[in-house]
Amino acid sequence: MHRCLLIHFKTAKDATLVCVMRSFDVKAMVGAFLLLTVGRVLAIEPQVMSRHLPEAAHHAQVVGRMPADQHLTLSISLPLRNPEALTQLLADLYNPASPRYRQFLTPEQFALRFGPSEQDYQTLIDYAQAQGFTIVHKHANRTRLTVHAPVANVERALGVTLRTYQHPTENRLFHAPDADPSIAIPTRILSIQGLSDFSRPKPTLHHVASARASGTRNPQTGSMSGLYMGNDFRAAYVPGTTLDGTGQSVGLMEFDGYNPNDIAIYESLAGLPSVALTNVLVDGTDGTPQQAGWVIEVCLDIEMAISMAPGLSSVIVYEAGNNGIPEDILNQMVNDNAAKQLSASWVFGPITDPSLDPIFQQMAAQGQTYFQASGDWGAYAASGNPIQLPVDSPYITAVGGTVLNTSGTGGPWSSETAWNWSGGGISAQYTIPSWQQGIDMSTNQGSTTMRNLPDVAMVAENVFVVADDGWELGVDGTSCSAPLWAGFMALINQQAGLNAMPALGYLNPAIYAIGTGTTYTTAFHDITSGNNFNGSSPSQFTATGGYDLCTGWGTPNGTNLINALVPFNPLRITPLTGATFNHPPGQSSFIPFSGTLSLSNAGASALSWGAGSTSTWFALSSSSGILASGGTTEITIILTSDATNMDAQINAAIVWFTNSITPVVQNRALLLYLDQPVVLNGGFETGDTSYWSLSGTSYYYTDTNGDYALADLPVSMTTTNANIPGSDFVHTGLYGFQLGAPGSSGYLSQTLQTVSGMPYLLSFWLQNSTDGMGGANEFLVQWAGNTLFDQTNMPLFVWTNLQFVVVANSSSTLLTFGARNDNWAFGLDDISAQLLPLPMINAFAVQTNTAVLAWIASTNVHYQIQTATNLSSSAWTNQGSPVLGTNAAMSTQVSTTLPSPQFYRVLIQP
Fold first, then answer.
1. Same-domain status, 250 and 382
2. Which has the minimum average pLDDT: 436-440, 492-496, 595-599, 845-849?
3. Which domain CATH number covers 798?
4. Of 101, 337, 364, 705, which is least surrounded by CB within 10 A?
C-alpha cells in the first residue's frame, strides 16, 4: 500500500529538515530513522557512478589539470520508474495480438507513468543549485538535468579531479576525471555526461571526393556525373509511388550547423520542391557551421531525407555544437515528439551509457522510429574495431550500406552488393532480442545468443551532396543510408495516416516478422553478394541469402515493403475526421449547411466505389461511381429537414465506403450538434460563483480584494492576487476553490444541462496543500448521485488531474464535490465536463485469422472492443482489456472466425 510520510527535524540552528518518503515499508522507515537522527543530521552515503573514467585515462600521458575557472556543461541523468511495467508495455504495443497494439503514449503520459518523480527531480535541482551549478535545461520527462558549472565546483560536488591527457589516437588533448564521480543525495543518479571528451561524436562519412572527379568511379548510373541524387533514390527503391511524405516530418540528430542555401541549391539541381527546415538548438549552440567535414554530414542527412520524401512537411534539425552531449539531443527529440521518423549518422565511441536506452524506449512507447547508421569501418570485432555507441541498442533500427546498380541513368533498381565498409557484427552487451530469435545463423556467422546488426540497409556509395557553401561533392557512408530510411519511413507513415491508422513506431518487430515470413522475397531486395571484411575481422562477415551481418534483411523492394507493413487501400477519403455540423444557440441555420468528402484513386487501375448510410438527417450527392487511376471526385453531404427535427442535442452517424479492389470497408463519422449547451457554468477566472450551490457548512468566498476573510476555512474561492498561477489553491489562471470544511464535509454542486444517453469526460485538478499535515480529511465526487470517487485520510499530493468517463441519464445532471479537511484545505480547479463523440469504426481489414479495426478516438478515454455472431444485445463478448485512447486515429487487432458471420463494435468504457 502506498503511503506518504513527512518527518520534521530540528537542527542545532533551529532549522527544519524535511524528509518525504513515498511507497515505504517498515524497512524503508527504519532506514530513514537510521539516516536522520533528532538534533543532528548524518551525512548521506555518497553514491558512486561507475564506468565514467575512460580506459585510456589509465594509460594516457597526464598533461595537467583543467583550469578551475573553465566551465563544463554536464547532463545528469536519472533512471526511469517502473521499468518492468515499461518492458511489458513495449511488448504489448508491438504485439499484433495485444489489445494495446500501437496505442502509443504522449510524452506527458510517459513522464507521468515512467519518468522520475517530481520530488526526486527537485532534489537534484536543489543540489545542483546549492553546488553553484547553473541550470541550463530542465527536461520535460525529468530523466536528465543539464547544468553549466566551473571546474572547481564540479570537482568539489562530485569528488573528482579533472585532468587533461594526451589522446592516444588523435592529435589533441582530452579531459577526464581521475576517478568515478560520486554524489551525496538521496535521489538515485544513473550517469553524468560531459565529464570527459575522450570520445567525441563523429560522423559516419567514409569517403569524400569532388563531384566532378567522381565520374570515374563505378557504377556510373546516378543522374549527377554518375552519382546518385534526388529522385534517383525513389526511382530505385519506390518506383511509381505517389507517396511523398506529405504530412510527415523527419527529425535529424546533428553536431554542427549548416548553410540553408546549400539545401536550396541541392533541391534546385535535383528538381525537388523546397521543404521547410526547422532548427532546434541544444546545449547552447547558435547553429553556426564549425567544421567543414561535419557540415557535410549535416547537409547530407537533410538532402537524403528530402530526396526520398520530397513532400515532407518539415525536416527538423536538432543541432548541438561539436562538443554537444548526444543524450541531450536525443532527449529533446523524444520530448518534442514532433517527428515520427528520426535518424542519426553519428556515433559516440566505444563506450557505454546506461541513460541511452531509456530514451530509445520512450521513443518506442511514443511510436517514433529511430534509424542509426551502422558505421563505416567494416565488420566490428571485439578488439581493434569495437561497436560504436549506440549502434547495437536493441531499441533502434541499425542501417547498413550497399553499392547500388540501376538500369541506366536515374533508372530503376538493377542489383546491389554489400558495401565493404558497412558496419556489422555481434553485440557484446545486449542479448538477442525476441524478434531476432529463431533465425538460422549457420551461414551468416551470426549469434543465436547476442544482438546481431545491422537490421536493414540502403545505398552507401556514389552519393551526390551540396555542402559547405555550395561545394559539390560525392560521398560514401552509411550516413547516406540512415536518413534515406527515415525518408522511406515517412512514406510508410503517410500511408498509415491515409488509412486512419497510427504511425508504426519501433520498426524491428515488424521487419523481422516479414523477414521470416512468406512475403520476404517480394518485400525486400535480398543482398547476397559482397562482405565487410577488414583488418580486425578478415573473414567476417559475408552477405548471404536471408538475414546477414552486412545488410541485415536488405533494402526496400518498392512499395511491396510499404504495403506489407501497411495494407494498401487505393480508395483515399479525406478528411479522415469526416464532417461536423453545428446549430449554435440563437442561430437560424446550420454552420455549415453542407459538407464535402473527397475521394481519390491511388491505385494503378480503375475502381468502382459505393457509399451509404442508415441515417436520414443527411443525404449524399452521389452513392456510387468509377474512379480512374489517379482520378478524384467529391461527395456533398446535404442536411435534410430531419436534421432540424432531431430530439438529441448531438447526433452521430457514419458514411461507409466500399471499393472493387479491396474488401476493406472504410467509415467516416458525421456529427450533428443542435444548440449544444455550455456544459459547465461559473467562471473561476471571473470570480463568479453564482452557478454553484454550497451546502453542509457555512461558506464564503474571497474576492480579489480579500473580502469576507473568516478564521475557519470551509468552502471558499481564492485568487492569487498577483496573476501568478500555481498557488496552493489555484492550478491555472487567477481563481480556484479551496475546500476545507472542518469536522464534517461541505458540498459544492452544480446542475449541468446534458444530453441524455451521451458520454462525458469529467475532468478536474485536485491537490492537498503542503501547508499542513494531520487531522481527518475526505474528498468525494458524485455524478447524478452516483459516487465516482471517495477517499479519506489522503496524504499530501501536488496538483493531480482526475478524469472519469460518465454517462448522462437525463437532460440535467447534478455534479457534486464534497470535502472535509480538519487541518487545512484541498485545492480544486479547472473543472470541465466534455461531451464525447461516440466511437465510429472507420477502417476494417481482414488478415489471416485476424481483423484490424481503426476508429477515431478521444485522448484519455478507454475503449472496449466487442464481437458477436449475431446482433442480439446480450451476445456481445469483450475482446481483451479496454484500450486507452492516445491518438485521434487508433487501431487494434482481434481474432476472427471468418468466413463465419461476425460483428464488431467499439464502446466507450466508463
1. yes
2. 845-849
3. 2.60.120.260
4. 705
Q: Which of 481, 246, 457, 461 is nearest to 343 (CA)?
A: 481
Domain CATH number, residue 647: 2.60.40.10
Is the pTM higher than 0.90?
A: no
Domain span holding position 735? 693-835
Do 128 and 56 meet the contact criterion of CB atoms below 8 Å apart?
Answer: no
Cell triple for 349 = 565511441
Would you state the cell numbers that stand for residue 663, as one nine-digit string?
A: 474488401
Any domain includes 737 = yes
Cα→Cα distances 467→14, 167, 257, 259, 463, Å? 65, 30, 11, 8, 13
Q: What is the CATH number of the domain that holds 272?
A: 3.40.50.200
The continuous run of DSSP H or E covering 416 comes out as: strand 413-418
Domain total of the chain: 4
pLDDT one-digit tens code per residue, 345-357 = 999 887 778 999 9
**How large is the average pLDDT for residues 855-878?**
75
Mean pLDDT of 444-465: 97
Q: How far apart are CA 732 and CA 570, in angstroms?
A: 47
Element counts in the chain: helices (H) and strands (E): 14, 56
740/672 same-domain check: no
Domain shared by 344 and 462, yes or no: yes
Same domain, 699 and 618: no
Length of the chain: 910
Residues 6+ apart with CB under 8 A from 292: 468
Residue 265 lies in a domain: yes
Tens-digit pLDDT profile for residues 251-269: 999 999 999 999 999 999 9
Decide: 463 and 225 in contact? Cβ < 8 Å. Answer: no
- Cα distances (Å, whole numbers) of residue 705 to 687, 722, 793: 11, 11, 33
CA distance 865 to 757: 20
Q: Are residues 453 and 425 in the same domain?
A: yes
Residue position matching grid coordinates 491505385? 603
How buried is 5 (Cβ within 10 angstroms: 0-12 exposed, 13-18 middle, 19+ buried)?
middle
> Does residue 79 lie in a domain region?
no
Question: Do both 262 and 212 map to the same domain?
Answer: yes
Helix 292-308 and helix 478-498, axial crossing angle in degrees, nearest 10: 30
Q: What is the DSSP string of 544-574?
A: -SSSBTTTBT-EE-THHHHHHHS---SEEEE
User: Given 631, 646, 676, which residue is the final one in a domain?
Assistant: 676
- Separation CA 829–CA 868 (nearest Å): 43
**Residue 121 maps to a domain:** no
